[in-house]
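Sample entry (250 residues):
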Amino acid sequence: MRLVDLSHSVSMHTPGWVGYPSMKISYFQRHATHGIVSQFIETPLHVSTHMDAEMHVVSGGSDMASVPLDRLVGEGVIVDVSDVVDDFAVITPEMITRKVEVKRGDILIYHTGWWRYYNEAPLEDEVRYFCRHPGGTRRLAEWIAEMQFAWTGVDTASADMPMNTSIRYKRPDIAREYARRTGRDPEVEYPEQDLFVMHHVPFRAGVLHVENVGGDIAQVLNRRCTIGAFPWKFRGGEASICRVVAFLDE
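Predicted structure, serialized as tokens:
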């Protein structure tokens, strides 16, 4: 069996989502003074490769500790849609299903190629990664809920298309750029009640997601295999940094 890491690393350089603080790392014990090394980390949970819990968007929703192991690990597919997406592209179910057979209850990871723009990646571009990535809208969200996937993952900063998130308010210059490039007004195209629809609709159906998938994902495209996500068993946690692994029988 070969294991392929689909996770980004974490460090003091790891960026938080738009408007979120970065991770802070410090030492409170050093070899010279204590004989051992101990570190302290202060971090938002939505950094690097991470899984969101229901309670992130659903009042009264379940926490990270409630996600059963048999839902975190199972059969799934890693689908490459990078040839049909670009800045601000809307990902549709057909982009996924025409590449690989997808089954109800699968773990589904879809690859846009945006991991290449992540921190310390080959084409690092933080603005493009966080503010111009492809993403889903209501149509993809409802399909994911209908398919009852175990969970989904994507190699972008959010499962939602950026103009369907608060980025359009936090970065009005990006919203103006989108309007110039597309000729569409994001305020009209994406009503406020639909903001973060890729979170709200699947999560209410019990389908969580992992964002910022990366690592060696390019090695395992368009194939079926066992996939696992390993977040903290975090009681009361609304998200968790996690490790994502593909298990290949070769």
